[in-house]
Amino acid sequence: MNQQPHKIDHVGVAVKSLDDALPFYVENLHLTLEGIEEVESEKVKVAFLRIGESRIELLEPTSEDSPVAKFIEKRGEGIHHLALGVKQIDERIKELKEKGIRMLNEQAKTGAGGARIAFIHPKASSGVLYELCEKEKKGE
Ligand code: CMX
Question: Is residue 140 over pLDDT 80?
Fold first, then answer.
């Protein structure tokens, strides 16, 4: 069933500062920090914390015009998006567009960890920002 998302790949959480947020996750929740990476195209620095087959992705804005900076300004820190693990993302985007679903990305772009990603506008999905996320099998 290639059409069906196969897991929650990660939950994106907007934070003002990774340095301030990380100790809670690592020292109190005992999650494993897999790595920190800057995603220039999205104007964020991200930290991935493994939780079972999924991850929590902490997102710190790296500039004032970052989508995450705007989100924090408007709503405060908190859950920012849900990323669904999918196969054949190009097909998934094409199908959603054909069905008239408002996509924020008409084509997949490269996100953290080299994943191919595309966002669906939250107005198309009951106020939730969804990311489609396709990864190579290795290190998924
Ligand atoms: N979740 C749910 N709703 C959201 C949202 C979010 N994360 N961010 C904004 N919204 C809401 C706004 O509050 C607004 O709602 P109201 O009209 O009811 O107030 C609505 O979406 C549209 O807002 P907008 O003014 O048209 O657009 P914004 O400038 O706020 O941008 C969005 C919102 C989603 C289009 C923009 O943030 C975007 O393009 N996001 C995709 C890219 C991204 O988020 N990158 C960062 C993560 C990258 C990564 O994971 O690596």
Answer: no
pLDDT for residue 137:
67
Number of domains composing the chain: 1
pLDDT of the residue at 138: 55
- pLDDT (tens digit per residue) in 48-92: 999 999 999 999 999 999 999 999 999 999 999 999 999 999 999
| 1 falls within a domain | no
- Shortest CA distance to 114 belongs to which of 91, 137, 92, 84? 137
Binning the chain into helix, strand and coil, the percentages to the nearest 5 are: 30, 40, 35
Residue to mutate, 8, 43, 62, 81, ligand 1, most ligand atoms under 8 Å from C-beta: 81
Give the domain CATH number at 107. Answer: 3.10.180.10
In angstroms, what is the span from residue 67 Cα to ligand 1's centroid? Answer: 7
**Domain region containing 53:** 7-135
The answer to whether residue 66 is domain-embedded is: yes
